[in-house]
């Protein structure tokens, strides 16, 4: 049975304020193993530097088991370079969860199946942190404060330093994050049928290096430029007016500076626009570039091939990258409204061990 950390209200929408570890009625139960899935994310979306992020339908799967000795097994993205010791961000996330419970971390076996590209601006570090925290909470049977606290977000953002990736990784969807004594986040509606076209270069980029090249101070005109476009971006998604996205995703705070180490950025943005994309921008700190597109008529799953622009945009981005000597791959996906969730656990959760928030109170399923 799939259990989601983003419990649904009776309205069917996710509620970020009611994340709670499923547990047996009465006292929380420790578990021997747990499997957690967390989505990749794209932050900034052009103008929304450090405050806006979107969950993508690309998933990392983490299984953590109690074991005789510490062990890490990695399959998929990053398997050749990710650390296999306690410095791995997944392990740090688990440590944070056990610290919150006041319990020592036992010997554990970590099995990581990664589909989120590593160090490519697609939220691999946030996926690792969030999956570790959720897995640790389930293993030790610890509950976090929920109503109005967003405690899971606080733990994850404290490690990551900002909420633009961790918020959509935890809650799914498009999230706006800000800090005022604690981290806050709010969901923004994503229009149905939106497609995300990713160009993922063969080279990696560390967020710390990409952040180091940014200026300490900005001209007021550039700040106003980004503020106005951030407001337009939120309005575009909320109203479904995708024609405004091209202007809304323009940026003066990070892309001009990061383009020096990403020579493919502006050629890909121009190529995506020419091929019919709504907008294109650097994903996170890069080096990946993401474009938004949708079909000419109806939902993407019911369109004829000629009515879809996603493959045209993907091909145009590949050709533009090749023209500047940058090798990479394209990946077409979509936003996901689902965030971090428990896929399986041992002992398994029974139907009566799960509580769902609805109508202002907790109810047994």
TrEMBL record:
InterPro entries from the UniProt entry: GHMP_kinase_C_dom, GHMP_kinase_C_sf, GHMP_kinase_N_dom, GHMP_knse_ATP-bd_CS, Homoserine_kinase, Ribosomal_Su5_D2-typ_SF, Ribsml_uS5_D2-typ_fold_subgr
SUPFAM superfamilies: GHMP Kinase, C-terminal domain (SSF55060), Ribosomal protein S5 domain 2-like (SSF54211)
GHMP kinase C-terminal domain span: 240-293
Any one GO molecular function term: ATP binding
GO BP, one annotated term: threonine biosynthetic process
Pathway recorded for this protein: Amino-acid biosynthesis; L-threonine biosynthesis; L-threonine from L-aspartate: step 4/5
Pfam families associated with the record: GHMP_kinases_C, GHMP_kinases_N
Keywords: Amino-acid biosynthesis, ATP-binding, Kinase, Nucleotide-binding, Threonine biosynthesis, Transferase
PROSITE patterns: GHMP_KINASES_ATP
Domain GHMP kinase N-terminal: 88-173
Its EC number(s): 2.7.1.39
Reactions this protein catalyses: L-homoserine + ATP = O-phospho-L-homoserine + ADP + H(+)
Domain of life of the source: Eukaryota
Family, similarity comment: Belongs to the GHMP kinase family. Homoserine kinase subfamily.
The name this protein goes by in its record: Homoserine kinase
Organism: Eutreptiella gymnastica
Lineage, highest ranks first: Eukaryota, Discoba, Euglenozoa, Euglenida, Spirocuta
């Amino acid at each position: 049975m799939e259990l989601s950390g983003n419990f649904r209200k009776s309205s069917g929408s996710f509620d970020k304020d009611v994340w709670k570890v499923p547990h047996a009625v009465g006292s929380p139960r420790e578990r021997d193993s747990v499997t957690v899935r967390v989505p990749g994310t794209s932050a900034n979306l052009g103008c929304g530097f450090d405050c806006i992020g979107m969950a993508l339908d690309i998933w990392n799967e983490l299984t953590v088991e109690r074991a005789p000795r510490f062990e890490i097994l990695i399959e998929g993205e990053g398997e050749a370079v990710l650390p296999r010791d306690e410095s791995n961000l997944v392990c740090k996330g688990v440590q944070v969860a056990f610290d919150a419970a006041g319990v020592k971390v036992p010997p554990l076996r970590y099995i990581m199946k990664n589909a989120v590209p590593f160090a490519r601006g697609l939220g691999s570090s946030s996926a690792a942190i969030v999956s570790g925290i959720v897995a640790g909470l389930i293993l030790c049977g610890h509950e976090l404060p929920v109503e109005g606290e967003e405690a899971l977000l606080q733990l994850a953002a404290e490690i990551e330093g900002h909420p633009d990736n961790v918020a959509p990784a935890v809650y799914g969807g498009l999230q706006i994050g800000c800090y005022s004594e604690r981290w806050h986040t709010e969901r923004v509606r994503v229009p149905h049928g939106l497609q995300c076209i990713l160009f993922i270069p063969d080279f990696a980029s560390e967020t710390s290096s990409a952040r180091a090249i940014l200026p300490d101070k900005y001209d007021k005109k550039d700040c106003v430029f980004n503020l106005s476009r951030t407001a337009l971006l939120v309005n575009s998604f909320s109203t479904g007016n995708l024609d405004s996205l091209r202007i809304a995703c323009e940026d003066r705070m990070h892309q001009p500076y990061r383009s020096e180490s990403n020579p493919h950025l502006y050629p890909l943005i121009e190529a995506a626009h020419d091929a019919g994309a709504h907008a294109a921008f650097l994903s996170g700190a890069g080096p990946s570039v993401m474009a938004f597109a949708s079909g000419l008529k109806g939902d993407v799953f019911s369109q004829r091939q000629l009515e879809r622009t996603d493959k045209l945009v993907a091909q145009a981005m590949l050709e533009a990258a090749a023209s500047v000597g940058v090798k990479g791959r394209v990946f077409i996906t979509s936003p996901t409204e689902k965030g971090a969730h428990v896929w399986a656990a041992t002992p398994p959760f029974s139907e009566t061990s799960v509580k769902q928030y609805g109508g202002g109170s907790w109810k047994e399923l």
